[in-house]
Amino acid sequence: MTKRDIITLAIGLAVVLFLWAAPEETTPRLPSDDTHAEFHILFQKQGKKAAEKFCKDCHGQEGMEFPKDHPDPNRCLFCHKANK
Ligand code: HEC
Ligand code: HEC
């Protein structure tokens, strides 16, 4: 492998990592407040699916509608990361 190959690889890798990391930056995380504390625990003990079941008890209800540009609200924790 020449030096040039390594540089090309490094740049390619940097682009991939950037694209991969970018969406997460703008997506709000699962808040670390009292309201959401139990879901952090549930997530740690039983995983995403177990915790997600309860999100729509509040979110999406009257007075707490999703923003117009919000993606299809399922599998919340794939986008809204729970762990720090
Ligand atoms: C008991 C009602 C309730 C439940 C259940 C609930 N939330 Fe929330 N959530 C709120 C309220 C109230 C707010 C706004 C104030 C705050 O941040 O706590 C909020 C805010 C948020 C925000 C916005 C944070 C921000 O920075 O704008 C996200 C993301 C969120 N919740 C995700 C979730 C997910 C994912 C679940 C399921 C694991 C969930 N919530 C379950 C009441 C709830
Ligand atoms: C495909 C990714 C994705 C999924 C799945 C998803 N969200 Fe979001 N959510 C986002 C993004 C991106 C934003 C920020 C952009 C926006 O405000 O529309 C957001 C914003 C929010 C906010 C903040 C809204 C505000 O008024 O600031 C809440 C609350 C929220 N999501 C809750 C949820 C809940 C609850 C679920 C599951 C039922 C969920 N989301 C599923 C990507 C997602």
Class by alpha and beta content? mainly alpha
Oligomeric state: single chain
Please count the beta strands (DSSP E, at least 2 residues each).
0
The biggest beta sheet is recorded as:
none
C-alpha-based Rg, rounded: 18 Å
Taken from the alpha-carbon principal axes, the silhouette is: elongated
Unreliable segments of 5+ consecutive residues? none
**Please, how many helices?**
4
Helical fraction equals 40-55%
Mean pLDDT over the full residue set: 90
Give the terminus-to-terminus CA distance. 38 Å
Order of helices and strands: HHHH
Number of domains: 1
What small molecules are bound in this structure?
heme C
Bin the strand percentage: under 5%
Question: Any chance you could write out the topology, listing elements then pairs?
Answer:
Layout: H1 3-26, H2 34-46, H3 48-52, H4 76-79
Bound molecules: heme C (2 copies).
Structure keywords:
mainly alpha; elongated; binds heme C
Characterization of the model:
By secondary structure, this protein is an all-alpha fold. It has one domain. It contains 4 helices and no strands. It has helices at residues 3-26, 34-46, 48-52, 76-79. The longest helix has 24 residues, at 3-26. The chain starts with a helix and ends in a 5-residue tail after the last helix. The model has no long low-confidence stretch (mean pLDDT 90). The chain binds heme C (2 copies). One heme C binds at residues 27-28, 55-56, 59, 67, 69-71, 73-76, 78-80.
